[in-house]
Design goal:
Length: 195
């Protein structure tokens, strides 16, 4: 069976690099704002050792081929991370998730540019038929970003996950399929301007 791997994805200002140990210091610095972790499924790592365990888990997922994690860079500075997960090459399907950014770049277009890179790679290089996205159903900011792609809202899975130490999470699911991709790409390129 085909094994998908990550490659460096680059556009005008944003670069997604396959995650490596070299990103640790930049990710640590970018991860310090508590609001960054509000909607992630794990508690914010408080110490460097806890953060190293988080990073080691992400790197292990890349090594075993279960996920493809990236560091998100803006103008050469690490500002967050994102991943391909739930990889299903046999069905040509994956999920984009574990996306977090330092609050200083929220609303700046970084997330839209990163999604353009990831969706383009998923549909054009990996030949996906479907790309899924999900978030906590209460995360209005993330849901608005997914709708603005536009990704199709597909419903809420009630009591989908236990997160952050036994907290219930209902998950809102969205998807872009290959038939949608040309319109989604045009919308993102229009939003981001030429480049």
């Amino acid at each position: 069976m085909e094994r998908w791997t990550g490659i460096r994805l680059e556009r005008r200002r944003v670069v997604l690099e396959p995650l490596s140990d070299a990103h640790e210091d930049g990710l640590w610095a970018a991860s310090r704002a508590p609001e960054t972790w509000r909607w992630l499924s794990v508690l914010q790592p408080e110490t460097r050792a806890e953060f190293r365990a988080y990073l080691d888990h992400a790197l292990a997922s890349a090594a075993d081929g279960s996920e493809i994690p990236f560091a998100t860079l803006l103008d050469g500075r690490v500002v967050g991370s994102t991943r391909y997960l739930a990889l299903a090459p046999e069905f040509r399907r994956l999920e984009i998730g574990w996306t977090w950014l330092h609050p200083s770049v929220w609303g700046s277009g970084v997330n839209a540019e990163a999604k353009l890179l990831q969706l383009g790679d998923a549909f054009d290089r990996l030949r996906c038929r479907r790309v899924e996205l999900k978030t906590d159903a209460l995360n209005e900011r993330s849901r608005a970003a997914m709708a603005a792609l536009p990704a199709e809202f597909e419903g809420v899975f009630r009591k989908h996950m236990l997160v952050r130490g036994e907290e219930n999470r209902d998950s809102a699911w969205y998807a872009v399929v290959d038939d949608d991709w040309p319109a989604v790409r045009s919308n993102l390129e229009r939003r981001l301007g030429a480049g």
